[in-house]
């Protein structure tokens, strides 16, 4: 409902990745065809809005979700056939645990775990009701940038692929 946001992502030099058009787990994880239809609809929408041919994906619930009626390896195979690359995360902000997760808790969830990995992909959500995520970001970003051996980069095909399932 906000096509200008997608264009701003692209113009800002960030990666435009796909997640789901509907985010209705019971529908998208009903079959490979249902997932393919959902991601294809999103791909076409984003292409129409931005001119970017998206090929980066994050599965709703991650590749290790236990909600899918389809074996997730079948969906991974589908993405491989479509030359799409999926990413999961190895650090969770914990912001999906409820509406009342404080900014301090989100920041500590991230900052207590980012040093455990050489390559880190952090799971955040930007849905309505996630204001504390936005509030936590300055502290998280500033702390990470203060580390002498850290670089913040957009996800690309060259990014080390953190994946729960292979």
SSE pattern, N- to C-terminal: HHHEHEEHEH
Task: Give the helix proportion (percent range).
Answer: 40-55%
β-strand amount = under 5%
Q: List low-pLDDT spans.
A: none
Give the N-terminus to C-terminus distance in angstroms. Answer: 33 Å
| Total number of beta strands | 4
Main sheet properties: 2 strands, parallel
**Treating each run of at least 4 consecutive H or I residues as one helix, how many helices?**
6
User: Largest sheet, order of strands side by side?
Assistant: 1-2
Mean pLDDT: 93
Report the structural category.
mainly alpha
Rounded radius of gyration (Å): 16 Å
What is the 3D form? globular
Give a topology summary.
Blueprint: H1 3-11, H2 25-28, H3 32-50, E1 56-57, H4 72-81, E2 85-86, E3 91-92, H5 103-111, E4 122-123, H6 131-146
Helix pairs in contact: 5-6
Key structural traits:
166 residues; mainly alpha; two-stranded parallel ribbon; 6 helices; 5% strand; globular
Description:
The protein starts with a helix and ends in a 20-residue tail after the last helix. By secondary structure, the chain is mostly helical. Helix 5 runs parallel beside helix 6 (131-146). The strands form 2 sheets. The chain has a two-stranded parallel ribbon. A two-stranded parallel sheet has the order 3-4. The chain is built from 6 helices and 4 strands; from the N terminus they run αααβαββαβα. Helix 5 (103-111) links the parallel strand 3 and strand 4 (122-123). The model has no long low-confidence stretch (mean pLDDT 93).
Short description, anyone?
This protein is mainly alpha-helical and 166 residues long.
């Amino acid at each position: 409902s906000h096509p200008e946001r997608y264009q701003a992502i692209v113009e800002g030099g960030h990666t435009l990745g796909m997640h789901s058009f509907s985010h209705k787990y019971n529908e998208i994880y009903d079959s490979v065809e249902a997932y393919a239809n959902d991601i294809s609809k999103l791909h076409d929408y984003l292409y129409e809005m931005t001119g970017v041919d998206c090929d980066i994906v994050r599965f709703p619930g991650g590749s290790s979700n236990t909600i899918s009626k389809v074996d997730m390896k079948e969906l991974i195979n589908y993405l491989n056939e479509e030359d799409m690359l999926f990413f999961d995360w190895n650090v969770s902000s914990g912001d999906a645990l409820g509406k009342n997760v404080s900014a301090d808790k989100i920041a500590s969830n991230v900052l207590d775990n980012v040093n455990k990995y050489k390559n880190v992909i952090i799971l955040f959500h930007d849905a309505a009701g996630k204001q504390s995520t936005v509030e936590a970001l300055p502290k998280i970003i500033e702390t990470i940038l203060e580390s002498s051996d850290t670089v913040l980069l957009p996800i690309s095909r060259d990014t080390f692929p953190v994946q729960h399932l292979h």
